[in-house]
Automatic annotation (TrEMBL):
<protein>
    <recommendedName>
        <fullName>Glycosyltransferase RgtA/B/C/D-like domain-containing protein</fullName>
    </recommendedName>
</protein>
<feature type="transmembrane region" description="Helical">
    <location>
        <begin position="100"/>
        <end position="133"/>
    </location>
</feature>
<feature type="transmembrane region" description="Helical">
    <location>
        <begin position="303"/>
        <end position="321"/>
    </location>
</feature>
<keyword id="KW-1133">Transmembrane helix</keyword>
<keyword id="KW-0812">Transmembrane</keyword>
<feature type="transmembrane region" description="Helical">
    <location>
        <begin position="190"/>
        <end position="209"/>
    </location>
</feature>
<feature type="transmembrane region" description="Helical">
    <location>
        <begin position="145"/>
        <end position="170"/>
    </location>
</feature>
<feature type="transmembrane region" description="Helical">
    <location>
        <begin position="278"/>
        <end position="297"/>
    </location>
</feature>
<feature type="transmembrane region" description="Helical">
    <location>
        <begin position="333"/>
        <end position="350"/>
    </location>
</feature>
<feature type="transmembrane region" description="Helical">
    <location>
        <begin position="246"/>
        <end position="266"/>
    </location>
</feature>
<feature type="transmembrane region" description="Helical">
    <location>
        <begin position="68"/>
        <end position="88"/>
    </location>
</feature>
<keyword id="KW-0472">Membrane</keyword>
Length: 459
């Protein structure tokens, strides 16, 4: 499985928000000192711990800066995640052959697969999450500390997932093992969570002292997450975020998993086992802090924010099939339906004018080949990269995407230059799409599996 992931990753460049987490912050540390976090300027600082950037900068210094080296740095965490995920599934299913089928269904989630083939902090965060979760299930306090410390040093969302682990630990102790809450709050458990929280507290204090802010970047390069013009504006944004949250859970084929769980829970409501109740609690509590935060901020929520919950729900669906469906043929049909539904999510391509989470499935993979062909076309026809406009996430240097030292930089679209590089991967505004349709002709188009990259020339 790891070899397949490596094969899919070879040509996958730095994508979406990871241009900040990998290229921008990584280059700052590579050029100014691996541990010189203050060299990360506010213009490129998202506020999160620069753990991935530090790790990459170190290995770039040691082995050379390249896309391939960056993928190799992530690979141990990918392997570790797969191992911890399988161990978790096997703990729940507790049957060797069935656990393999359950693991395959869980692994088939498109948003998880997308994180495994790109250079990003999500794979690292997920590794530490399932390491922590397995430590809770196996009552291994040492691994629990290691997992929680790792979570706290990857992203702020990792700290929130750590709170989810705490809630799961309480439920595991009080509900599943029928112990009192008072017995959970013993010296050992208190010490585990105090030790685990120290690195996060140190980082937060360091930021406040050295930078003066945590997540509200004073330059607001990504907008103000808490900027509401009025009470009605807040309520409208809150309602929109609820809709977005629902969409994230049902997107990319997950709708079949969600509907199946709801139907079975209603149909067999009097026969729901403690194991199912525990899995559902894990699915909710693991990301409850992320959900609450996401509902109140004025920024789009990514599909990847809720991956632990997606995986736990897929496992819940598998256990529901095993516990509540008696006929083997029916079990096989339902399992195949859910698996195919999730796999098919990697082939969903929305119409151009509908935004898609391109970093949340494998649908983006053809883009890298097409992008390379488009850049070669520009070079062959003497069209200057520095005078070609484009859109996020391509509105940066070639090096920021490919880590190849090519500092030629595309311009952000303004309608002033003669040439534009456009792809349906870019999720542009309706007004920009209309401008391209009216004011530009297609000079060259590259297509593959629903993904397209166009070179446009101004009329």
């Amino acid at each position: 499985m790891t070899l397949i992931i490596v094969g899919l990753s070879i040509y996958t460049g730095i994508f979406w928000d990871n241009i900040t987490f990998v290229s921008a912050m990584g280059n700052a540390l590579y050029n100014n000192g691996v541990l010189n976090w203050l060299s990360i300027s506010n213009q490129i600082d998202p506020g999160h711990p620069p753990t991935l950037a530090t790790l990459l900068a170190f290995f770039w210094k040691l082995l050379g800066k390249s896309l391939w080296i960056s993928h190799l740095v992530i690979l141990p965490f990918v392997y570790g995640l797969l191992l911890q995920l399988y161990n978790f599934v096997h703990h729940i299913v507790n049957h060797k052959r069935l656990s393999l089928f359950a693991f395959l269904l869980v692994l088939a989630d498109p948003t998880l697969l997308a994180q495994l083939v790109t250079v990003n902090p999500e794979a690292i965060q997920l590794f530490f999450f399932f390491l922590s979760l397995n430590a809770v299930l196996n009552n291994n306090k040492t691994l629990k500390v290691i997992g929680l410390v790792g979570l706290s040093l990857v992203l702020y969302r990792g700290m929130m997932l750590g709170f989810g682990i705490f809630l799961i630990d309480i439920l595991q102790h009080s509900y599943y093992h029928k112990q009192t809450l008072k017995s959970f709050l013993n010296k050992q458990n208190i010490l585990v969570y105090i030790l685990s929280s120290i690195p996060a507290l140190i980082y937060i204090l360091w930021r406040l002292v050295m930078k003066g802010w945590l997540i509200s970047n004073p330059h607001q390069p990504w907008g103000n997450a808490l900027d509401y013009s009025s009470e009605s504006g807040f309520l409208w944004n809150f309602g929109r975020n609820i809709g977005m949250l629902v969409h994230r859970y049902i997107d990319f084929g997950r709708v079949s998993v969600i509907i199946f769980i709801i139907i079975v829970l209603i149909w067999f409501r009097n026969k729901i086992s403690d194991k199912i109740k525990l899995l559902l609690f894990m699915a909710i509590s693991s990301v409850v802090a992320i959900i609450i935060t996401s509902l109140f901020i004025n920024n789009p929520m990514g599909h990847r924010y809720f991956i632990p919950s997606y995986l736990l729900l897929s496992l819940t669906a598998f256990v529901l099939i095993e516990e509540n469906i008696s006929k083997v043929k029916t079990k096989s049909v339902l399992y195949a339906f859910l698996l195919i539904s999730l796999i098919s999510g990697n082939f969903f391509i929305y119409p151009d004018k509908i935004s898609q989470g391109w970093d949340a499935s494998l649908a983006h993979l053809p883009y890298w080949e097409l992008r390379e062909s488009a850049i070669n076309y520009l070079d062959d026809n003497d069209i200057k990269i520095n005078h070609t406009e484009t859109f996020f996430p391509n509105n940066t240097s070639i090096d920021a995407v490919e880590l190849n030292g090519d500092e030629r930089t595309f311009l952000d679209f303004s309608g002033q230059e003669k040439y534009v590089l456009y792809s349906n991967v870019f999720n542009i505004k309706d007004s920009e799409y209309k401008t391209l349709k009216i004011e530009y002709d297609t000079l060259k188009i590259f297509k593959k599996r629903g993904v397209k990259v166009l070179i446009l020339e101004k009329k």
